[in-house]
Amino acid sequence: MKRTRPRTGARAGRRMAAAATALATAAGLGAVAAAPANARSAAAPDVTITVDTAHPFGNLPSDFVGLSFEERELGVGSFTAHTGNLAALFRTLGRSNLRIAGNTLDRDTLWVPAGHQPPSPLPSWVQDVVTPADIARLNTFLKASGWKAEVGINVGHFDPALAADEAADLRTTLGSRLVGAECGNEPNSWLGKGLRTAPFGYPQYKSDWEACAQAAGTTRLAGPDTSSPTSTGPWVASFAQDEQKKVNLLTIHSYSVNSSATVTDLLSAKTDASELSAVSAELASARGVGLPIRIDETNSAAGGGVVGVSDTYASALWAFDYSLLMAQDGFSGLNFHGGLGMCEAPLFNGKFQIYTPVCAANDADAKAAVYKAMPEYYGLYMAAQMGGGRFLPVTVSSNADNVTAYAVRGGDGKTRVAVIEKDPTTAGSVRIQLKIGGHSGTAQVIHLTGSSLGAQDTAVQGATVSRSGHLSPKPANHVAVHGGMLDVSLASGSAAILTLAG
After folding, report:
1. Which domain, by its residues, includes 404?
2. C-alpha triplet 102, 104, 109: angle, nearest 5°
3. Which of 66, 140, 193, 303 is the 20 to 30 A CA-CA neighbour of 88?
4. What angle do CA 289, 290, 294 make, to 5 degrees?
């Protein structure tokens, strides 16, 4: 992608347009509109986006945008189909992948088989108990939402009989809704968490994982679920080579920025580059053995996120961009980690739940299992609207900072182009010319907007998620396509999806 510094005149024009854009957005008119004909002829566009329709590549799976939660959410009964609005919130995102594991899996969760009572007293390390009744509840939730799941088996405190019983229950109860059982969580950090004693590295983990795999007795396994960075050695490369015949999915974790990051950092081109480089070796390992690889725990910043960054409208733009960036690179999916308690609820070590896509506004809502959509949720919704299909090469020649674009030819024959403008919302509008040969007629446009990068208010086509968990955007805007070209004006700090018929 080519990026150049904006011309002084272009910046001045954007500032002059800012007030009018803000008024239009506040009135619900949207951040994307056809540029007037005289404007198209009077000045060169700020951004030219060219889509190569002749050379599709890669794949955008329909279940790419997923969610991730801690294992303890099973034991406390969070995944309920008939209480609250969680199933509706999942359905609003479309059919996808739910991953359940996290730190609580190995640290403090005990599996108790059917017909058994938890030991009394509980072992000192146990804080959460999961039973077949919890898996049955999960299955009902998956049926209601249309999602599938990855579910963890405790290997940090390993009991082969309990692992075998849980794996059998997962297979029997979830059936085809089980993507894979995961043997343990972030094993490359077990030594530091006191779950193993030195020496402990990949060779010792290999023995532990294979014991779990033998107990599980299934080829529907996912792993190794290593944390990022994998500083204890080539865990994923070795695991992929050693266990490629036993797993159907490689899984890793990655977070994008550190705890000192700002909104500007989150949306920077530098962060885009670091997101790709941080997991390039793992992606190469997966390609080397022909296995799909999923970043099944991810978000903006580890440990709950950053106040004023992970919980803002900027996170919506980031999540939209990050999802498509990693899919285009070759990952089969992303699962954004969060929690189902109150917003900014305490987690551990003095940290708080900031990055979660959904959370309860207050204690009453938490008890009623009624959750609100945080800004990040809207970014995930936009990414999901790109649908399944194949990517098309995109070239961005830009006189404006922080513009990214992606194009997908869907299985329905339509072409969808995502454009994300990541400057502050006060910078004014950006004139965009899209070149997409072979198309004519009209393009539909939906857009993602917010009042400022640091605020929380976020909308898709002027609409917000209702208390019932549904999102009903206003009708799409329409832009004329002439000779494979169209012009639109995109507000700074906003994003859009342009859909063209096949």
Report:
1. 2-58+389-500
2. 130
3. 303
4. 100
- Cβ atoms of residues 48 and 397 within 8 Å: yes
Joined together, the tokens standing for residue 191 give 């030594």
Q: What distance in Å separates the CA atoms of residue 169 and residue 249, rounded to the nearest whole number?
A: 20
Contact at 8 Å (CB) between 495 and 382?
A: yes
Q: Are residues 310 and 347 in the same domain?
A: yes
CA atoms 33, 34, 35, 40: torsion sign: positive
Distance of alpha carbon 317 from alpha carbon 168, whole angstroms: 41
Q: State whether 332 and 435 are in the same domain.
A: no
227 and 315 part of one domain: yes
In angstroms, the first-to-last Cα distance of the chain is 25
Question: Which pair of tokens denotes residue 220?
Answer: 């529907």
Distance (Å, rounded) from C-alpha 35 to C-alpha 20?
A: 14
247, 364: one domain: yes
Alpha-carbon gap, residue 275 to 326, rounded angstroms: 8
Residue type, 246: K
Q: Three-state SS for 48?
A: strand
Please state, in angstroms and as integers, the Cα–Cα distance from residue 277 to each residue in 229, 240, 270, 318, 444, following that order. 11, 19, 11, 17, 34
Residues 346 and 418 in one domain: no
Q: Are 460 and 317 in contact (CB under 8 A)?
A: no
**Same domain, yes or no: 365 and 394:** no
Contact by Cβ (8 Å): 442, 479: yes
Per-residue pLDDT tens listing for the chain (502 residues): 433 333 333 443 444 344 444 434 433 334 444 443 333 334 678 999 999 999 999 999 999 999 999 999 999 999 999 999 999 999 999 999 999 999 999 999 999 999 999 999 999 999 999 999 999 999 999 999 999 999 999 999 999 999 999 999 999 999 999 999 999 999 999 999 999 999 999 999 999 999 999 999 877 899 999 997 665 458 999 999 999 999 999 999 999 999 999 999 999 999 999 999 999 999 999 999 999 999 999 999 999 999 999 999 999 999 999 999 999 999 999 999 999 999 988 876 667 899 999 999 999 999 999 999 999 999 999 999 999 999 999 999 866 668 999 999 999 999 999 999 999 999 989 999 999 988 889 999 999 999 999 999 999 999 999 999 999 999 999 999 999 999 999 999 999 999 999 7
| Cα–Cα distance measured from residue 332 to residue 367, given in angstroms and rounded to the nearest whole number | 35
Q: Which residues partner with 48 through β-bridges? A: 397, 433
Residue 203: phi and psi, rounded to 5, are: -55, -40
Residue 251 sits in the same domain as residue 184: yes
| Cα 355 from Cα 297, distance rounded (Å) | 12
Cα separation of 68 and 101, whole Å? 8
How many domains, the chain?
A: 2
353 forms beta bridges with none
